[in-house]
Amino acid sequence: MPLDATAIANNISHLRERIARAAERAGRNPDEITLVAISKTFPAESILAAHAAGLCHFGENRVQEAESKHLQLGGLDATWHFIGHLQSNKARKAAELFNRIDSIDSLALAQKLNAAAAALRKRLGVLIELHMGEATKSGVAESDLPVLAAACAALPHLDLLGLMAIPPYAEDPAQVRPYFQKARALRDATARRIGRGLPVLSIGMSHDFEVAIEEGATEVRIGTALFGRR
Questions:
Q1: Burial class for 123, CB neighbours closer than 10 Å (0-12, 13-18, 19+)
Q2: Which domains does the chain have, with CATH numbers?
Q3: CA distance linking residue 31 with residue 45, whole number of Å
């Protein structure tokens, strides 16, 4: 059963405190870190409650579900992130519904999104998803990252902002620290290689976001710790 608005607001307050403490440990400004509320499978009412409590970034992983929520939410002032694997045949609708596609994993998908954004007369923010060994997750291999990043950066209707990564799950969040360190190093190396800034590093979820912040995350993707269990 979805949490009520009071519980969601309390969770957001607690999360902000944890984000601030993690940022302080790393000598960072917590204002540098964006909390992306992973609202997939949760109802529109949960999104409205989170928005009323101050959140404006929401993540969905199904185009059809996002379209339904957009209709229910009536033009809510929010930034919509597509997370997860995006099928090429959904690129046009995804470009229409979302402000950001955070899971580019192939040049073919990037080209489809670029064409869709061109038809919509918009520039679409994108992240490249880096595969980090989690068998169930998509993403580009480290060896293919430089070529894909250079190609994405050259597409005129895409705005390549950085990398997203999901490490293998570990009960102890400290065990994923090396994966976050690697993602940051690859983001920085890729930026140097293509000669442009890549300000976004989207790493960390409900169980490990504090470690991710300590290792340089600029965006953390929180679902369970915010909305409750699915």
A1: middle
A2: 5-227 (3.20.20.10)
A3: 26
* Residue 156's pLDDT band (cuts 50, 70, 90): very high
Task: Tell me how far apart the alpha carbons of residues 222 and 53 are, in angstroms, rounded to a whole number.
Answer: 15
Return the minimum-mean-pLDDT range out of 4-8, 49-53, 137-141, 183-187: 137-141
d(C-alpha 39, C-alpha 52), whole Å: 14
Share of the chain above pLDDT 90, in %: 91
Mark residue 95 as left, alpha or beta (left: phi above 0; alpha: psi -120 to 50; beta: remaining): alpha
> Is the per-residue pLDDT at 135 higher than 80?
no
Give the per-residue pLDDT at 72.
Answer: 94
Token pair for 94 = 């995804």
Return d(Cα 130, Cα 141) in angstroms, integer.
6
CA distance 137 to 180: 16
Residue 59 has a pLDDT of 98
In one-letter notation, the amino acid at residue 105 is D
Taking every pair of Cα atoms in the chain, the longest distance, rounded to a whole number of angstroms, is: 48
Q: CA angle 112-113-119, nearest 5°?
A: 95
